[in-house]
Design goal:
Chain A: InterPro entries: PtdIno-glycan_biosynth_class_S. Chain A: This is Phosphatidylinositol glycan anchor biosynthesis, class S. Chain A: Pathway: Glycolipid biosynthesis; glycosylphosphatidylinositol-anchor biosynthesis. The complex is a heterodimer of chains A (585) and B (558). In chain A, strand 16 and strand 17 (386-390) form a beta hairpin. The longest helix of chain A is centred in the last third of the chain and has 41 residues, at 544-584. Chain A has helices at 2-30, 39-46, 67-70, 104-110, 115-125, 200-218, 222-228, 240-248, 276-290, 333-340, 411-425, 449-480, 488-510, 513-531, 544-584; strands at 48-60, 75-86, 89-101, 133-138, 150-160, 163-173, 179-181, 186-190, 255-264, 270-273, 296-305, 314-316, 321-324, 350-356, 365-367, 379-382, 386-390, 405-408, 437-439. Chain A has 15 helices and 19 strands. Chain A has a seven-stranded mixed sheet with strand order 2-3-1-4-8-7-19, sandwiched between helices. In chain A, strands 5-6-16-17-14-9-11 form a seven-stranded mixed sheet, with helices on one face. In chain A, strands 12-13-15 form a three-stranded mixed sheet, with no helix packed on it. The model of chain A is unreliable at 148-175 (pLDDT under 50). By secondary structure, chain B is an alpha+beta fold. Chain B starts with 14 loop residues before the first helix and ends in a 6-residue tail after the last helix. Classes of the chains: A alpha/beta (585), B alpha+beta (558). The interface between A and B is large, with 44 and 52 residues.
């Protein structure tokens, strides 16, 4: 009996050693390294509650309010709006409005003869911070705002497949002007007729509708923000137009390469010269300088000889010109793209702008839209890719001119079109101002301050949405596949992405737009770097079944005796207990 | 003797070269192209295309980014300025140049891919730049240059001097690597053609039809970028991009010579010797001295209308007159092989020939050997005319396992009309099982040795710098009249390494597990088995007897 007891103890001891020492040792030596990740914080980010705060200042100039009404100033008012976009994403807009009367200097500035000059001198007085809006309420009788008849350029978009045509058609309005939006962050608002008997509250509530319109023009509209969230949210509630805008704009990226290419398919007849260096300096660079907080831009240009479009233009007898119909435009790009060459030195997205000078036998060449009308700019653009402009030169020389003909390209004409296309690509949304609004043209900078703000708002939200999706899907992936090695540097990238994201959300809440964008860019960079790290792929294809197949020659002969003897011990113990019970009975 | 003819037919208008090949009025870049056809003594045809883009600009200027390109390809320009490259030479070669049969090529290149780059001396992290540059170039040329890493990169101290402006001597900024196994095909030719300003649409490049080019005995395409002088006074810098393509067609292979040039031909310089009769005759003859040999070339200038005659086309006919005596033997020639047997040790033999009848001259031999051939440098011997020949300069950098290759550079004086043999023994290393290539029994390539020398010239070389020199004679700057620079590449070596059975790891695991399991089993048995006194069972006879007794009802036996 003691002998049997000893055997039992030996079996138990071996089982204990295998379980206590062997299995942990094996586990430890074959385990993959997985650094700690802030899973709880990531899951918090999964449900995103964004708050966008805008500072609004409403300044009443002399003659708009009665002295009695003025006494109660200054005064402020907070207005919040909440939207639940989907189950995991919520938006809250916080408009903090402060009301005050104009200072003497501002009154002087408002006494300038024209609105543009007033706008400039107001800008000289004080620089408003990024993302804020200042509305000056001026008396109804003020002559600052243009009365009637002004011309504005309106872009018509024709949406068909991937290509869109831009037409620049001057449109003429005959209308009373209510609001003037300047080049900076100020707007002039003609005060609606107030009754002197009203108290201040009534006056302000009367003004509210107009102020709100101004703010949604100059700061952000709900549709744009929802469109910017397209990475997280399924696009159902968005209007077709803001969807088109966001699809046309190239995705947010830390940098962009802009390439201008001159296609000369017929160097035998045309010797083309373009002053691209000067043109970039005077037309493109001011816009890019303005956009510097959003991304880094680099500009290149090249000339491609014997580069032809992919489609043969059709000759139209009625106008004795060659035409490209809108349907065929989608076939134009691919053959050209092979010649463009990729950007070897960086991995940023490339925006291509091609200037195509048709060969002598195929000119003039015109682009026609879907309603068979000629496109005045003779240009089209392809969303997220770039634009192509056709430049006819056949009128510049007679039939007896000696070939090749030297031709200087009018860069102002070309760059005007490319600039408009570049604005679209960069997502400077085309705003549809309510009736009665006058938008000052952005001038030499190519971009008004408030347009930049609009871009900053949607870019910050887009970056936050993208980074949070990336980081949550990475966390999900790492959680699901236990084989992936998580190195320290990946854990560090993930943590820094999470912290940047949190700071970006916080800055957005505090209304510091510039910082919010900065942090959101950092978050996107860190999250992409973590997501695309090659070290994540190393052991991905080492499946568990194969691993265990290798271990079977060891595990099977070791475990079978242990398990069997354990079973035997258990059954003996049971038997003994049963015996004991039987005895005691 | 077989009469072969070479037929060309021109159908393209010459004025497009006017656009493409001549200096743009008022601009600062220039494109020039040239084709040299040299009938070889073996009966083959050697065609050498050179395309040169000159641009009066400086990529490495401080604070000013070059970003507006006309003739110079944008992708290469961006690479140059991003990685601060001073000089870049890259070549892809299929086949081996047979120096003894074919003479010296205009631009030599080793089989496979070769890349050497001089970086600007402001670069702080040369290795990092080199790594990134090779990755980018492998993207541009669709080649596996990304396999260039520290284990096959060397920094030769003397063999590769910059060919362009500036005499940098600090070889810390030089990187040299070869991939002898690289296979060159159309996928490499297409991106190479794309770098030309007119692509393959105009000029000589229309002749580059890949199905013909790769059906040849030798094919080599290269890109050389270097800074050169703008003018004779050398007041300012210009960048030169030289794209070269050398092909050797075998005329005896059915109809090859005819087909290759059928579509159209541009001949800037066609060469005739007295062995050949050329029609149509060209009024332009030019003499050029290249590689120590003065020759007369018939020149067809395609930018001039009279070259084409009435038909606006050019047919070119070469008639072999007969076997024309001895070929001029190349003065310098080298070959290499592996000797020895078994898989443990071996010996590399490099044989260098000086065929000059009476002049001795020094040569620089450069050898880059991968780390898995462990060289025994004490066995290095150099013998000429069965006598010991002591090198006057030896630069040896031993390998580090898995980090860098061996580099051996020697300056050897070659006696006149002699054969010099350099031998060194090596041991083959056993690699880790993940380090073997996918086809390890094929063997491992060792890149070509490079022999660089200033060879005494039979005729006076011209040292003056002129713009109108033909391209094929102006690649390597000539510094003195009496000698010319030659670089000779030997054959690459194919060495077998001891190759294990690759199912071994699994076998080892299984075997070990089984041994452990058997040992464990007996150990376990010994520990847990309990010994009990058991009643001995009855022998079989007694049990049978008991069975019968039970039936009979008799008391059983015990």
């Amino acid at each position: 009996m003691p002998e049997k007891q000893r055997g039992r103890y030996a079996a138990l001891a071996i089982a204990a050693v295998v379980i206590v020492v062997g299995i942990p040792l094996w586990w430890k030596t074959t385990e993959t390294y997985r650094a700690w990740l802030p899973f709880s914080e990531i899951s918090e980010l999964d449900s995103l509650q964004l708050q966008l705060s805008v500072d609004i200042e409403v300044v009443f100039s002399r003659g708009t309010l009665t002295p009695e009404q003025q006494k109660k100033f200054p005064l402020s008012h907070v207005n919040e709006k909440e939207h639940q976009v989907d189950a995991k994403t919520g938006l809250r807009y916080k408009y903090e409005t402060r009301y005050r009367t104009a200072t003497i200097m501002e009154e002087d500035a408002l006494n300038q003869p024209t609105a543009a000059e007033a706008d400039l001198s107001l800008h000289m007085l004080s620089e408003s911070s990024c993302g804020s809006v200042v509305v000056y309420v001026i008396p109804e009788s003020s002559t600052l705002l243009p009365e009637v008849r002004f011309r504005a350029f309106v872009y018509f978009y024709i949406l068909k497949s991937l290509l869109k045509l831009i037409m620049l058609i001057p449109a003429v309005y005959f209308q009373d002007v209510k609001v003037y939006v300047g080049q900076r962050r100020t707007a002039l608002l003609r005060s609606p007729p107030f009754k002197t008997s009203w108290n201040l509250k009534e006056v302000l509530s009367n003004l509210d509708v107009e102020v709100e319109q101004v703010v949604s023009t100059m700061s952000f509209g709900h549709q744009d923000i929802v469109a910017a969230l397209s990475n997280r949210v399924r696009m159902t509630k968005v209007t077709k137009e803001s969807m088109a805008d966001s699809m046309r704009a190239i995705k947010s990226s830390p940098g962009y390469e802009i390439t201008f290419s001159l296609l000369n398919p017929d160097p035998k007849s045309h010797s083309l010269h373009w002053d691209i260096e000067g043109a970039v300096q005077s037309y493109i660079q001011p816009l890019l300088n303005k956009l510097a907080p959003i991304a880094n831009f680099s500009v290149d240009s090249q000339i491609l000889y014997y580069a032809v479009l992919g489609v043969n233009p059709r000759f139209d007898n009625s106008v004795s010109a060659y035409t490209l119909s809108a349907d065929s435009l989608s076939h134009v790009i691919n053959p050209v793209e092979a010649r463009l060459g990729s950007n070897a030195a960086s991995s940023n997205p490339v925006l291509n702008f091609l200037l195509y000078v048709p060969d002598a036998h195929h000119s003039p060449l015109f682009i026609r839209d879907h309603s068979k009308r000629e496109v005045p700019s003779n240009a089209f653009h392809s969303p997220r890719w770039g634009g192509i402009m056709v430049y006819n030169v056949n009128e510049m020389y007679g039939p007896e001119a000696e070939r090749p003909v030297d031709i200087n390209i009018n860069m102002a004409k070309v760059m005007g079109v490319f600039l408009a296309q570049l604005r679209l690509m960069l997502g400077v949304q085309h705003t549809h101002p309510p009736t009665g609004f006058v938008l000052q043209s952005p001038g030499s900078a190519g971009l008004a301050d408030w347009e930049l703000d609009r871009l900053l708002w949607s870019r910050s939200v887009e970056n936050i949405a993208t980074a949070s999706t990336t980081i949550t899907s990475l966390a999900q992936l790492l959680d699901q596949i236990g084989n992936i090695v998580i190195n320290d540097n990946i854990a560090q990238q993930v943590s820094s992405a999470v912290t940047s994201l949190q700071s970006a959300v916080a800055e957005l809440e505090a209304g510091n737009l510039a910082f919010a964008l900065q942090y959101s860019r950092e978050a996107i960079l860190a999250s992409e770097r973590a997501f695309f790290d090659p070290s994540l792929l190393h052991l991905l294809y080492f499946p568990d079944d194969q691993k265990f197949a290798i271990y079977i020659p060891l595990f099977l002969p070791m475990c079978v005796p242990i398990v069997l003897s354990l079973l035997k011990i258990v059954s003996e113990a049971k038997k003994r207990r049963a015996d004991k019970q039987a005895k005691s009975d | 003797f077989r009469l072969s003819s070479l037929i060309g037919h021109i159908s393209t208008c010459p004025s497009l070269i006017g656009q493409c090949c001549q200096r743009h009025p008022g601009s600062v870049d220039e494109f020039q192209e040239e084709l040299v056809i040299r009938p070889l003594h073996s009966g083959d045809i050697y065609a050498s295309f050179q395309f040169r883009t000159l641009w009066d600009t400086d990529f490495l200027q401080e604070g000013q980014k070059v970003s507006h390109y006309r003739l110079f390809p944008k992708s290469l320009g961006q690479v140059l300025s991003k990685f601060s490259v001073r000089e870049l030479h890259i070549s892809f070669t299929q086949g081996f140049w047979r120096t003894m049969q074919w003479g010296q090529p205009f631009i030599p290149s080793p089989p496979g891919a070769e890349l050497w780059v001089w970086f600007h001396d402001t670069v702080s992290d040369v290795d990092g730049n080199w790594k990134e540059l090779t990755n980018v170039l492998s993207g541009i040329f669709c080649a596996s240059l990304n396999f260039i890493d520290l284990t096959n990169t060397v920094q030769p101290s003397a063999s590769f001097k910059p060919l362009g402006l500036g005499n940098a001597t600090d070889h810390r900024f030089l990187r040299y690597a070869t991939l002898p196994r690289e296979i060159v095909c159309t996928e490499n030719l297409t991106p190479w053609k794309k770098l030309l300003p007119c692509g393959s649409k105009a000029g000589l490049a229309v002749l580059l039809k890949s199905e013909k080019l790769f059906h040849s005995s030798f094919h080599s395409q290269a890109v050389h970028i270097r800074p050169v002088c703008q003018d004779e006074q050398c007041t300012s810098k210009a960048w030169e991009l030289r794209q070269t393509l050398n092909v050797v067609f075998d005329l005896y292979t059915a109809g090859q010579g005819k087909k290759a040039f059928r579509s159209s031909i541009y001949l800037n310089c066609g060469k005739t010797g007295e062995l050949f009769e050329l029609s149509p005759a060209t009024p332009l003859l030019s003499q050029a001295v290249v590689l120590g040999d003065r020759r007369t070339y018939s020149v067809f200038d395609l930018t001039r209308a009279e070259t084409f005659g009435q038909l606006r086309s050019l047919n070119l006919l070469l008639r072999w007159k007969g076997d024309g005596g001895e070929m001029l033997r190349p003065l310098l020639h080298a070959e290499r092989y592996v000797a020895g047997f078994g898989l443990q040790t071996g010996e590399i033999h490099t044989v260098i020939y000086n065929n000059h009848p009476y002049r001795a001259f020094p040569v620089l031999l450069m050898d880059s050997v991968p780390w898995y051939l462990q060289l025994y440098i004490h066995t290095l011997t150099v013998t000429s005319k069965s006598r010991d020949n002591k090198p006057s300069y030896i630069h040896y950098q031993p390998a580090k396992d898995r980090h860098r290759p061996h580099l051996l550079e020697m300056l050897i004086q070659l006696p006149p009309h002699s054969m010099t043999e350099v031998t060194v023994q090596f041991e083959r290393a056993l690699l880790k099982w993940t380090e073997y290539t996918p086809d390890p029994n094929h063997g491992f390539y060792v890149g070509s040795s490079v022999v660089s020398a200033l060879v005494p010239s039979m005729v006076a070389m011209s040292t003056n710098f002129t713009q109108d020199q033909p391209l094929f004679s102006s690649f390597v700057p000539v510094k003195e009249e009496s000698s010319y620079f030659v670089r000779v590449y030997t054959e690459p070596l194919l060495v077998n390494l001891p190759t294990p059975d690759f199912s071994m790891p699994y076998n080892v695991i299984c075997l070990t597990c089984t041994v452990v399991a058997v040992g464990y089993g007996s150990f376990y048995n010994l520990l847990t088995r309990t010994f009990q006194v058991d009643e001995p069972s009855l022998p079989l006879a007694k049990r049978l007897a008991n069975l019968i007794r039970r039936i009979r009802g008799v008391p059983l036996l015990t």
